[in-house]
Amino acid sequence: MKNLQQIQKILPSTNNFLILIKFLIFFGCVLIIVTSFFTTTLPFNINIINTSNHYKKYVNFQIISNYSTTFNLLPPPSPPPLPPLSPSPLPPPPPPPSLPPPPPTPPPPRVTFLHNMEDGELLKKASLVNKEIISTPKIAFMFLVRGALPLAPLWDRFFNGHQGLYSIYVHASPTYDESYSKDSVFFGRRIPSKPVRWGNMNMVEAERRLLANALLDPSNQRFVLHSETCIPLFDFPTIYSYLINSTKTYIQVFDEPGATGRGRYSHHMSPQIDLSQWRKGSQWFEMDRELALNVIRDQTYFPVFRKYCKDKCYGDEHYLQTYVAIKYWEKNSNRTITWVDWSIIGPHPGRFERPRVTIEFLKNLRDNFTCEYNGQKTNVCYLFARKFMPSSLTRLLRFGSKVLKYG
To answer: Which residue positions does the secretion signal occupy (predicted)?
Structure first.
């Protein structure tokens, strides 16, 4: 009985202890929750006042532990909003699918030719051009030159206003790749050419090439050969009337017995050409259409010259002259209409620079000669003159209207 009473005395104490434990646990939970709330929402340090150092360390440790635990459990705060971005230009559209680059554009040709026929085809085609009745005949002006035409402005003035009465053909060195001025009558008038050497038979081949090109136009009825140093001594109407109405051709032909004449003959040319038939004359000719056709068709005398006229034979002074003397002497005047100065001894005629070109000099070339034209005596014998150097151009242009009567 006594033990039972003792136990009953002890039980209240035990109950009270359990109540205290529950209270402490509840108080601790509340404290943890409150502490966690303040540590996550308020940025301040927790200081425990009036506590022992040991208790401070314990509380601080507990707060840090609780703060770490709470930090790991709660989501991180949202980052501050970014400042508004300034509008940027739209990116360029993507490039189209890559294609192979186009081939480079070739440069425009600096030289244009009338055609691209070779000599054989050209001569054959020219020889077959039908003879037609032409209401307005033309004169073919054929220029055998090295390259540039320094006297072109003078010729431009000469031809001005007479379109349809002339044709122009230029045979220049193949190495000359410049083009003549677009506002000149020589622009686009070059023919396919081959190299030419002074005194060689390829000079005669160039002349035949020029004739063949001019013969392709049935309107061309007269054919005159010039160099880059030639000038006209009269106006276009005078020269046109003189040549179109002439009954003769103008190829200088004479027999020279010396070393520069018969001395150039080769006995290998016999029997087609005898020494007695060998002739000499100026290279610068004028002929009609009939003779021009026969020259390019020649298969008898030209091959002989090409084979045996070598070195110092100078075929340009002998082939056409000998051919005409043998075949067409009756219709030839045996004189040239292109004046040159042979007063200087040597292989080349005299040259005329600016100081030598005067009004008196040009007047003498026009009037100081006597010859025959269509059976009548005349003072108009030379229509052209040559060996005028580029320095003479300014004076020629100045005297063109006063003396030469053109422009």
So the answer is: none
